[in-house]
Amino acid sequence: MTTDDATPSAGDDWTVEAADLIETAVTAVRDKATIPLRTATRAVVYGVALSVVGVITITLSVAAFIRVLTVYLPVGHSAGHHHRVWVAYLIVGGIFTLAGLFLLRKAEATPQEGK
Predict the structure, then answer these.
(1) Cβ atoms within 10 A of the Cβ of 89, count?
(2) Where are the domains positioned within the chain?
């Protein structure tokens, strides 16, 4: 009876060790490949979503700012808003031009490597 008990237990240990080895290998591959890929994918998806929301927010904010300027500027005494519209466009265009010139100056001021 002792001989029969020893043989199956040795076989059981070998199968358990093989299963543990396979599980360890699969876990290592998952940790090194799948998890970083999932993290990168989430970053790309959230980045695209936030970019779309940002562009929409900026566009609607500029449109609202132009509308507020058109309605509340004390320019033009006629019944229509014809004189106020071009002044609002001029103001918003001036703001964007100044912001662009500022960013251009900042881009040129940064030292470039390799030159």
Answers:
(1) 13
(2) 2-109
